[in-house]
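Researcher: Go.
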Amino acid sequence: MTDWILYDSLTWPEVANLSRNCPLILPLGTGFDRSKLAETLNHPEQIVILPSFPFGWRGSNLPVPESCLQEYLRNLLYSLREDSFVNVFVLTPTDTNLGLGNNQIVQAYQPSDEFHFSLEDISKVVLIPIGHTEQHGYHLPLSTDTIIIEAIASSVVKSAPDQACKLPVMPYGVSTHRSSFAGTLNAGGRAFEDFWLAVIDVLVLYGFTRFYFMSGHGGNCSFLTNIVKYAGERHLNIFCATAFLYLTSSQGVQVLEQYRESKIGGMGHACELETSLMLHLRPDLVYMDRVVDEIEFIATPSYYMDWVEGGALTANPPWTDDTKTGAYGAGSLATREKGKIWFEAAVQEKINHVAEIHEQYHRRIERRRPRK
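Model: Structure:
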C-alpha cells in the first residue's frame, strides 16, 4: 500500500527527513489517477505529491509558449535535485511533451483548469495571486505563502464580485536563498518574469485590461515590479500593478502596528504576522510547540528585517547568517485573534487597491481621448 504525502503540508525539517529515493511528483493541474501513477512507479512505499501547476500548458485556458513553461518547470525540478532527490517527475497528459525526458511521466488524464471567465469579467481587475512553496521555520508548512495570498484574493473577489475576478493561485515563486533550507523551490527570476509576462499577453488577447499581481512571498516582489514595467511598455492600453506583499499601505501598517507585540525584527518570515494569519486560516497546519523566535538579524540603520522592509540599502546576504531555523521574527507572539484582525485588514487593503486600479485605468483612457 502506497503512502501518499502532500509535499506542501510538510515543514522543512520533515522534507529533510524524506528518503532521497522517494518519488516526487509535480502534476500539471489535477484529475490524474493515483492508482495508475502508483502502478507506473511500481508501487513504492511513499509518493510525494507537490502542489499542482495550475495553468500554462497547451489545452489549458491560459496557454503560454512552451519554452516559458519548460524553463519554469526545469528550475523547480532542479531545486529538488539540488536537495538530492533522485526521482523527481512532472506529470503531464498524453498530448503534452515538455522535452523533460526521463523527468516527465505521461498519463491519460484531462487536467482540470480552474480559470473560467465570461464577457462580464473583461471589465474587472484580474487578481493574479502568487504564493510559494518554501520553508517557514519549524512550525509552519511550506504552503504558508500560498495559503495566505489565496485566501486574501478569494475574499476580495467575494467582497467585490463586480470589481474583480482571479486566476488560480500559483504555488511556485522565486527564492534566491533556496539552498539554505531543505524543501524550498525556486522558479528562477528570469523564467518567472518570462512566464508571467506571457500570461499577461494571453489575457490581453482575451480582452482584459486591468491586472493586479498579488504576492504572498517577498522573494517574488522585485521580479513582479519588472513584469509590471515590461507589461506596461508592451501593452499601452492596460493598467498592470503590483504591491509589496500585504498590510504595507499606510492603513495596513497602522492596523499592523496597533496589534503587534513584537518590536522591529519580530515580523519578517514565519513571524508574529504570518503565524497569526495561519492560526486564523489553517490552525491544523501550525505547530506552536515547535516555534523558535529568531530576532538576531544583523541590523544597521539602512538595512534591517521587518515586514515592511526599511532602510536605503537593498541586499541579499545568506539567510543562514541570521537564522538557524528558517524563521525571521517572533512567531511565539502569534494569536488567532490577531490573525483574524490582520487578515480582514489585508483584504480591505486589496479591495482599496482594486478600486484604485479601476480609477487609474478609466482616468487615463479618458485623458487620451481627443479633446474637442
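Model: The chain has nine helices and eleven strands.
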